[in-house]
Design a protein that fits this description.
- 47% of the residues lie in helices and 15% in strands.
- The protein is built from 17 helices and twelve strands.
- Strand 7 and strand 8 form a beta hairpin.
- The chain binds glutamic acid.
Length: 456
């Protein structure tokens, strides 16, 4: 095929939309990546000939199953579960499990697609997958969550394995859920293996896994600022979310001398004009994870703070914005107000928290924008280290793991700058389009492995 005969970006996207009707999150994720990849492969015949992008954008398989469980009042409840195995060209499928009422096949396909690039960017041997269910763990008793997790694993066990597919946590799935699922996997298979990551320390979990996503995102932010000759010290930050990623991102910002002004949950955000210090962050962690409470309760304990119901925090003036809640939480208008209020860096702790309009606003304003697939890759990278420790039956020290996390994030930042700086500009100081850099670097490794395999 001559280079000029290649399908162009608009036709490619029209095909994606036609094959995935109604799956708007999946189409959005492909759109964001494909734009950059088309430019990159323009003069690279092999990638076209072997239809590499078309193949990465079609999951290897999507497993969908019924999950029945019994609630505390003996009602039979029925949920849907999925595992999307997107691509295992460079390693076993790897990616979290999300339990949230808005989980659909489209959401999991977008997450598995993103995960493929993210995992590649870590430099480790990890393929991309994602799973979950529309089950809502909020308000459920521990026993209800246990029965749901056991039922979910009773089907999932057939599709996963330490060399096949290694799930972990995500929204609605933390240490408690991973432990219930691991217990059920072990019971069904009679095998103690590293089939899940994010496990408890007593049964194969790794130190630093809990902190890794949030800390990693702030390390990425630190590296972006450093490249621009700046640092976190004295900067104000608006953080969304109040789960594992948000609280650890906030903690690391405080470690580095920044001031965290907000945290949020699905009911609204809290603005604390004095800043969330380490003690306050630790109260939030305790309240959200152990007591499973709401962020609104914060103002009863720290009355100088104010709760804004049903609102997102992007109108609060800040230097740094760190979205750590969920997809599409920063829309075009939010992005505009961040830029207008002087925000200089946006770093995504969540997966695809900025919609396509928002990304365009940040790119046009030329502010530093760290996309989730690069910035939040510290979590899955630490999961990769948990897999290595499980396989070798060793336990690494906290110090060693903290250092490895730091180096992994530096490596990801380097890979982004390798492809994100325009030809002719200085690799060290020229403007870096981190979205483009992450997309191309993540794509290249997977694509080259696929080329090596031929048509499979
Ligand atoms: N859910 C996390 C992510 O989005 C972690 C996945 C993992 O550790 O496998 O990257």
């Amino acid at each position: 095929m001559a280079v000029s005969d290649h399908v162009g970006f608009p036709e490619f996207m029209a095909g994606v939309e036609k094959r995935n009707p109604g799956q708007k999150e999946f189409v959005q994720a492909i759109h964001e990546v494909a734009q950059d990849i088309f430019e990159f492969i323009q003069d690279k015949e092999e990638y076209h000939e072997y239809q590499i992008l078309r193949r990465i954008a079609e999951p290897d398989r999507v497993v969908s199953f019924r999950v029945c469980w019994e609630d505390d009042d003996n009602n039979i409840r029925v949920q849907r579960g999925w595992r999307v195995q997107n691509n295992n060209a460079i390693g076993p499928y790897k990616g979290g499990i999300r339990f949230h009422p808005n989980v659909t096949e489209s959401v999991l396909k977008f997450l598995a697609f993103e995960q493929t690039f993210k995992n590649s960017l870590t430099g480790l041997s990890l393929g991309g997958g994602k799973g979950g269910s529309n089950f809502n763990p909020k308000g459920k008793s521990d026993h209800e969550v246990m029965r749901f997790c056991q039922s979910f694993m009773t089907e999932l066990f057939r599709h996963v394995g330490d060399d096949i597919d290694v799930p972990a946590g995500d929204i609605g799935v933390g240490g408690r859920e991973i432990a219930y699922m691991f217990g059920q996997y072990k019971r069904i298979t009679n095998k103690f293996s590293g089939v899940l990551t994010g496990k408890g320390l007593e049964f194969g979990g790794s130190l630093v896994r809990t902190e890794a996503t949030g800390y990693g995102a702030v390390y990425f932010l630190q590296d972006m600022l450093k490249r621009a000759g700046d640092d976190v010290e004295g900067k104000t930050a608006v953080v969304s979310g109040s789960g594992n990623v948000a609280t650890h991102a906030a903690e690391k910002i405080v470690h580095l001398g920044g001031k965290v002004l907000t945290l949020s949950d699905s009911q609204g955000f809290v603005f604390d004009p004095d800043g969330f210090d380490l003690e306050k962050i630790s109260w939030v962690k305790e309240h959200k994870t152990r007591r499973r409470g709401r962020i609104a309760d914060y103002v009863e304990v720290y009355p100088s703070a104010k709760f804004h119901a049903e609102a997102r925090p992007w109108g609060v003036p800040c230097d740094l914005a760190v979205p750590c809640a969920t997809q599409n939480e920063i829309r075009g208008e939010d992005a505009k107000s961040l830029v207008a209020n002087g925000c200089i860096v946006v770093v995504e702790g969540a997966n695809m928290p900025t919609d396509l309009d928002g990304v365009a606003v940040f790119k046009n304003a030329r502010i530093l924008f760290g996309p989730g697939k690069a910035a939040n890759a510290g979590g899955v990278a630490l999961s990769g280290l948990e897999m290595s420790q499980n396989a070798a039956r060793v336990v690494w020290s906290e110090e060693e793991l903290q250092e490895r996390l730091r180096q992994l994030m530096l490596g990801i930042h380097d890979r982004c700058t390798q492809y994100g700086v325009s030809a002719g500009a200085s690799k060290d100081t020229g403007y870096c389009d981190y979205v483009k850099g992450a997309n191309i670097a993540g794509f290249k490794k997977v694509a080259d492995a696929m080329l090596a395999y031929g048509v499979v």
